[in-house]
Hints:
InterPro entries: AB_hydrolase_fold, AXE1_dom, CE7. One of its GO terms (biological process) is polysaccharide metabolic process. With 317 residues, this protein is of the alpha/beta class. Helices cover 34% and strands 18% of the residues. It has a single domain (8-311), classed as 3-Layer(aba) Sandwich (Rossmann fold). Helix 4 (151-169) packs across helix 5 (182-193) and helix 6 (210-216) crosses helix 7.
Amino acid sequence: MPTFDWPLGELRRYQPELTHEPDFDLFWQDTLAAARECTDAPSATPIDAGVRAFATYDVTFPGWAGEPVKGWLVLPSGGSARWCVVEYQGYGVGRGRVHDHLLYAACGVAQFVVDARGHSRGDTGDRSAESSGPHEPGFMTQGAHDPRAHYMRRLITDAVRGLDAARSLVSASRFAVAGPSQGGGQALAVAALGDGVAAVLPDVPFLCDYRRGADVSDRVPYLEIAQFLRKRPELVDDTFRTLSYFDGMNFASRATAPSLFSVALMDPIVPPSTVFAAYNHYAGPKDIRVYPFNEHEGGGSLHAMQRLEFLRKLAEF
């Protein structure tokens, strides 16, 4: 895959206008206040996942509208940690298997893996019928007519409630939010909306600068937007207005915790310009690792250790 987006120097200068509507902050205040009306406590059930070195738990917590959301909790040896990383998942992925999530615990960091509702490898269903209406197959245009109905409202609410659950379950003193692709976009949202975030680790974050993504990428998920609007061109303005409530660059402009981004310059799924749109608007301390010849895998296992080193420099494990 050749480089298809702008040169790196231009990417570092790219700062499109923010797209948030005047009621953006009130929209999210009301959304999260309603979600927190459900005061059910999260449950953590010890499980035998064949992993002997760490304590592993199957977690259920109340997400959007109190609906049950699943997660894995993996604690390092001794059961306590200074850091807990709350990790969100990529598009279509879900929480997977416990043994997919052992690196943080092996390095002395607790990890809470939040499931993604309705995604193919997840365990959490999407029960809401609010997003019914015309949309392209997939999640990007479910509820495109109204931000209150859009799927991403529920997914991001789940993400914030996942941080709430982690803070009630894990006796760590610092909480980071992280994730690849869609999970990186969720991490940016939680950094702006959640309580007590001490670090943000978005890898090749999706859900940023939707208009640019739909204009440039010929791959799903951004392609879903273009395919939908090709069939319904009269809905272009309404659709992008709706998506603005879930745009990572709007959240980034409100996030202040130290952050480490990653971007891959040959990524056809999440164009580098969309990542820099969020990074260049990020309001807090920030750094970015650029992988010139990588695609959507980003920095892979090398960057995984970069994340851990970043946390270590903020506060020793």
